[in-house]
Amino acid sequence: MVDLANKQSMSSREIAELTGKNHKDVMRSIREMEPAWVKMAGRNFALGEYLDANKQLRPEYHLSKTECLYIATKFNDEARAKLVLRWEELEKKAYDFTNPDTVLQLAQNWKEEHDKRIEYEYLYRNTANNNLLDPESPQPYRQKLCLTQSPDPR
C-alpha cells in the first residue's frame, strides 16, 4: 500500500499474494476487466513497474480501493473476503491517531504541503511582479532561486 502522503492503493502483486493467485493471472483479470471500467469510470487503471528477482522491470497495476473491489468480483468468495478485510485493516492503520508514528507522518506531510504552498505562492506573486529575487523572501527559497536561475542571454 502507498504511504499516507499519497492516495492509498494496492498493487496487483499484493492482490495476488493475498488471494493465493499467480500475479500473471491477476494481471490478466485486470486487463480483461479494464475496458468495462474505462466505459463506466472514464479512466484506466494505473499501470506501474517493479523490479523482479532478476532485476528486470515487470508491469504491475496499482488499484484504489474501489478499483480493487471491482476486480475482486472476478474472484471466489474467500478471495473477495480477504481483499475486503485487508482494505479494512489498511484503513484502520492509516488513520490510527493513537499511534505516534501515524500522527508524526501526518504532521510531516502537512508541513511539506504547507511549505510547498508558501513557495508556490511566493513564486507566483513575484513572477507576476517580475521580482524573483525579492530581499524579503524566505531565505532558503531565495537561495534556491539564486542557484537555479540562469542569467538573461540578451
Mean pLDDT across all residues, rounded? 76
Tell me the structural class: mainly alpha
Shape: extended
Q: What percentage of amino acids are in beta strands?
A: 5-15%
Report the count of strand segments.
3
Quote the distance from N terminus to C terminus.
Answer: 50 Å
Fraction in helix: 55-70%
Separate helix tally: 6
What would you note in describing this structure?
The protein is mainly α. The protein folds into 2 domains: 10-94, no CATH class; 100-148, no CATH class. It is 60% helix and 10% strand. It has helices at residues 12-19, 23-41, 65-72, 77-94, 100-128, 139-148; strands at 10-11, 46-51, 57-63. A 3-stranded antiparallel beta sheet has the order 1-3-2. Strand 2 and strand 3 form a beta hairpin. Helix 1 crosses helix 2 and helix 3 packs antiparallel against helix 4. The chain is extended, with a radius of gyration of 22 Å. The protein starts with 9 loop residues before the first strand and ends in a 6-residue tail after the last helix.
